[in-house]
């Protein structure tokens, strides 16, 4: 090695650029070489919509270990969250596909009400006015209105189940 090459290598080491891995691969945790395939399988199962419990069994990683890794490795926690979001996308796509095949407008309405309840959610209003000082009749009227809304809602839920 020439003097010039040695100087370049020294400068590269000082800047953190080197061909040798100065930081060894971790021996434990989600980024350890021995766990790479298991973690890939875990993330894949989560992205398919499986729970952490089911994915941990499928990937042969104890649940407690996964939760420990989540606490210790922020990047791993983010990757898990990304896999869960991917699962939501797959489930949403499947739901929309079924709704389209059945020409089911009710499913679309339900989905909109869950995604944007502020705009598409069920609107329920309760009117309150008071003219009497002790307020007992008003409270009874409010309870009656509330009871009516609850009964109305319970009836529509049982209709949806049928």
CATH class placement of the largest domain: Mainly Alpha
Helix tally equals 8
What is the helical fraction, as a range of percent?
55-70%
The first-to-last residue Cα distance is: 82 Å
Sheet having the most strands: none
User: How many individual domains?
Assistant: 2
CATH level-3 fold name of the largest domain: Arc Repressor Mutant, subunit A
Order of helices and strands: HHHHHHHH
Q: What structural class is derived from the secondary structure elements?
A: mainly alpha
Strand content: under 5%
| Chain-averaged pLDDT | 79
CATH architecture of the largest domain: Orthogonal Bundle
Shape: elongated
* Cα radius of gyration in angstroms: 29 Å
Based on DSSP secondary structure assignment, what is the total number of beta strands? 0
Q: List unreliable stretches of 5+ residues.
A: none
Secondary structure layout:
Elements: H1 3-14, H2 36-47, H3 52-59, H4 63-72, H5 74-102, H6 105-115, H7 117-120, H8 136-161
Helix pairs in contact: 2-3, 2-5, 4-5
